[in-house]
Amino acid sequence: MLFTFEVRTEGKFQVVDVTRSVQEAVWKSDVAHGIAVVLTPHTTTGLMINEYEPGLVGDIEAKMEELVPMGAGYAHDRIDSNAHSHIRATLFLNPEVVIPVDQGELQLGTWQRVLLVELDGPRRRRVQVMVCPCPAYPEEGR
Ligand code: ZN
Known about the structure:
Blueprint: E1 2-8, E2 14-17, H1 19-29, E3 33-39, E4 45-50, H2 54-67, H3 83-92, E5 96-102, E6 105-106, E7 113-118, E8 124-133
Antiparallel strand pairs: 1-8, 2-7, 3-5, 3-8, 4-7, 5-6
Bound molecules: zinc ion.
C-alpha cells in the first residue's frame, strides 16, 4: 500500500524532519519486517538521511549556495527561474531513500533523521512511503 503525506514548506530553502510521519506510515502498513521506500515526487525537493541540527542545516544551505549559485547563466532559467533548485536537487540529493524495517520500526542510527529538503519553496509538497515486506530468514538476529 502506498501512503502519502503532505508537507507545507515556508521558506525558499528549508529542511523538514519527516521521520515521525514515515514511521507512522510504517506502523499503518502493518509490515513488521521489510523495507520502506520513501519518495518525494518533485523535481526541486530531495530527501536525505542525516542529523537534524540547526547549525548543520545552515552549513548545508550555505555550501549549496556556494557550489550552485542562483542565476549563474543556466539555460533552464530562460523558461523558469529555478535552475539552481533543480541542479542542487540532482547533485546533492536523491528523490528517494530506502530504510530497513524490523519489528515495525525504521532501522536508523541514533542521530539519523529522514529529512525533506525544500529547494524552491514555499510550496505544498508530498512524500510517498511504500513499505514492502521481506522474508525473514531463520539465521537473522543471531
Ligand atoms: Zn524549473
